[in-house]
Write a structure and sequence with these properties.
The complex is a heterodimer of chains A (351) and B (116). Helices cover 36% and strands 10% of the residues of chain A. Chain A starts with 5 loop residues before the first strand and ends with a helix. In chain A, helix 2 packs parallel to helix 3 and helix 3 packs parallel to helix 4. Chain A is built from 13 helices and 8 strands. Chain A has 351 residues and is α/β, with parallel strands linked by helices. Chain A has a single domain, classed as TIM Barrel. The radius of gyration of chain A is 19 Å and the shape is globular. An 8-stranded parallel β-sheet of chain A has the order 1-2-3-4-5-6-7-8, sandwiched between helices. In chain A, strand 4, helix 4 and strand 5 form a beta-alpha-beta unit. Chain B has 116 residues and is mainly β. Helix content of chain B is 0%, strand content 46%. In chain B, strand 8 and strand 9 form a beta hairpin. Chain B is globular. Chain B starts with a strand and ends with a strand. Classes of the chains: A alpha/beta (351), B mainly beta (116). At the A-B interface, helix 7 of A face strand 5 of B.
């Protein structure tokens, strides 16, 4: 039997960085803004898979190559597109406009061409909650926009009260919130708690640990308790790093309960009910035979959703999960995403 | 053991505490607003002399960021790991399925009588 495969995170790009301007209004469209690859940790070689690059455009910009890889080779039945923006720009209005333009571009250039198999993410700028709510309301009823997307980088952890209206709005519309590393082209804080590492290698290995910071904040400040139907999706790996910290937090939260009496359940319960992680080819044990044991010990059956991460070189095919027990594999490859995304569940037809 | 007199009620005014011999590991006597209770001086979590911990209150909440201070004088906080116990029942708030052992207490002729 063919398994239903949902790709919970792939990343389309415009043909050229400046193409986004066509979807921007003035006075922003004529101004300069960072390109996608203006990282302060540029990967030393390439960070994209060769098969996602055509002669003319940015990696991941060619719909034909995308369809061939995702719907053809990988056998995916539905793909959730999570376009990147340009990092935390000090100019909040420009950051807002980039989000709006990205949403218009995504709906026009990608979602419209395949309403049955392509799904989208509403990019918002969480540093401006009032504007972010307007953006959510504008797109929430689009049948293919299945989630909200925010950068992993932030100036305050996502549990903090400044973000409260945004998460309330997401819950109101029944939209999960995806957190994914963004373009690192703005005024981001240092990516580790001890400062800026020297190399891309250090950065790439450590950056996902910031998911844990957001997650503990969402638990401790009561966001997950207050919004029991809200799901957070950490969309680029990190499940491997999470558990040692969650185990510790779980052991500690009861004795420290009186400080946060609004947190009624233990961290692992919130995790299982309201948090999902996308898979990433870089995580997990080095020995392939240890993978099933790892899958069991991090409760991947509940928490993990398959994501290709196309067009990045950390691309992962569904075959990466071939040695997992069939029921668990079916859930990771597709079942968990159908459970997580109400719109996808309603719309999706089995292969 | 049969019920026995352990201390004069006049020596344990409301809010007071006395640690006395008794039970398997010593007893803590507490006067909680006029009600005298006796608890084993042994924390079910890790064996601390729990009755030497602070007598305090605790927090309750119905919504985010709201922490109401309640039950002042009714909560015993273990000196080792901060577990909270209800003085009147011995029940743990930290882990409600654990309890400090309690003993029956009566007051006769000005004496606190404990059946330990």
């Amino acid at each position: 039997m063919t398994e239903l495969i949902i790709d919970a995170a792939s990343h389309p790009f415009p043909v050229a960085s400046d193409d986004l301007r066509r979807y921007m209004s003035e006075p922003f469209a004529h101004l300069r803004f960072p390109t996608y690859d203006a990282y302060f940790y540029p990967p030393p070689h390439t960070e994209y898979m060769a098969t996602a690059i055509d002669a003319g455009g940015l990696p991941g910009s060619d719909p034909t190559l995308f369809d061939k890889e995702i719907f053809g080779n990988a056998g995916t039945a539905g793909a959730i597109l999570l376009p990147l923006t340009r990092g935390l720009l000090p100019d909040l209005d420009m950051a807002n406009e980039i989000c709006s333009a990205t949403n218009r571009w995504l709906a026009d250039q990608w979602l419209a061409r395949d309403p049955d198999r392509l799904f989208g993410s509403i990019r918002i700028n969480p540093a401006d909650p009032v504007r972010a709510i307007r953006e959510i309301d504008e797109w929430a009823t689009h049948p293919q926009m299945v989630q909200i997307a925010v950068p992993l980088q932030a100036h305050q952890p996502y549990g903090q009260r400044i973000y409260r209206p945004i998460w309330e709005r997401a819950a109101f519309h029944g939209l999960p919130v995806a957190v994914h590393a963004d373009a690192l082209a703005g005024n981001e804080f240092w990516p580790t708690a001890a400062g800026y590492p020297f190399t891309y290698a250090e950065f790439a290995a450590q950056n996902p640990i910031n998911y844990t910071v957001h997650l503990l904040s969402l638990i401790a400040e009561g966001v997950l308790e207050e919004q029991p139907d809200l799901t957070f999706v950490f969309a680029d790996g990190g499940l491997d790093m999470l558990f040692p910290i969650l185990w510790r937090s779980n052991a500690d939260w009861r004795p420290l309960r009186s400080v946060t009496p609004w947190v009624k359940r233990n961290p692992l319960t919130y995790l299982k009910n309201q948090v999902r992680f996308c898979s990433n080819s870089l995580e997990g044990p080095t020995e392939r035979e240890a993978i099933p044991k790892w899958i069991a010990s991090v409760d991947a059956e509940h928490l993990l959703m398959y994501a290709s991460n196309y067009p990045f070189s950390s691309f992962q095919a569904p075959s990466a999960f071939n040695q997992i027990a069939p029921a668990t594999r079916a859930r990771i490859l597709g079942g968990a995403a159908l459970e997580c995304y109400p719109k996808l569940r309603r719309k999706h037809v089995s292969p | 053991m049969a019920p026995r007199r352990v201390c004069r009620i006049d020596d344990l005014p409301p809010g007071g505490r006395k640690i006395v011999d008794g039970g398997r590991r010593g007893l803590g006597l507490f006067n909680v607003g006029g009600t005298v209770v006796a608890l084993s001086n042994y924390c079910p979590h890790a064996g601390a002399p729990v009755c030497r911990g602070g007598v305090t209150g605790t927090t309750e909440s119905e919504r985010r960021y709201e922490a109401k201070w309640v039950r002042q004088g009714e909560i015993l906080r273990c000196p080792w790991h901060g577990w909270e116990f209800e003085l009147k029942t011995g029940r743990s708030i930290t882990r409600p399925f654990r309890s400090v052992q309690t003993y029956q207490v009566t007051v006769e002729e000005g004496w606190i009588v404990v059946d330990d």
